[in-house]
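Bench notes, afternoon.
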Amino acid sequence: MTILLTSHYMEDIRHLCKRTVVISSGKKIYDGPLDMLLDRFQEYRVIHVTFERETEPQLDAVEWVEKSPYKAVFRIRRNLVTPTLQEMLTVVYRIHDSIYFGTYFVRFLL
C-alpha cells in the first residue's frame, strides 16, 4: 500500500516516512531517505532546550531565537550541532541533574 503525504514539516516526514520524494514544477527532483535529503540541502538546525532549573547558557556559535532562564532555542549550522551540544551538556552537567532536548528527556546522575 502507498500513502501520499504532503508536508513541509520535516519532523512529520522523519517520523512517518521511510522514503521521501520531492517534486518541483511537476518533476521528481529527489527520491530517497530523508536524512540524505537533509544532508544535501539543509544547512541549519533549530535546537530547543528546556532546563529544569534556571540556566544562563553561553554559546558563541549559535544564532539565538529565544533565550530565557528555563528555555533556549537557537539556530546553528548542521556541522556544529554535535560539538555545540557536547559543550552545552558539559556546562549543564556541572550545574543541573536533568535537561530536555525537544521531546527527549535526559537525566544525569550526580
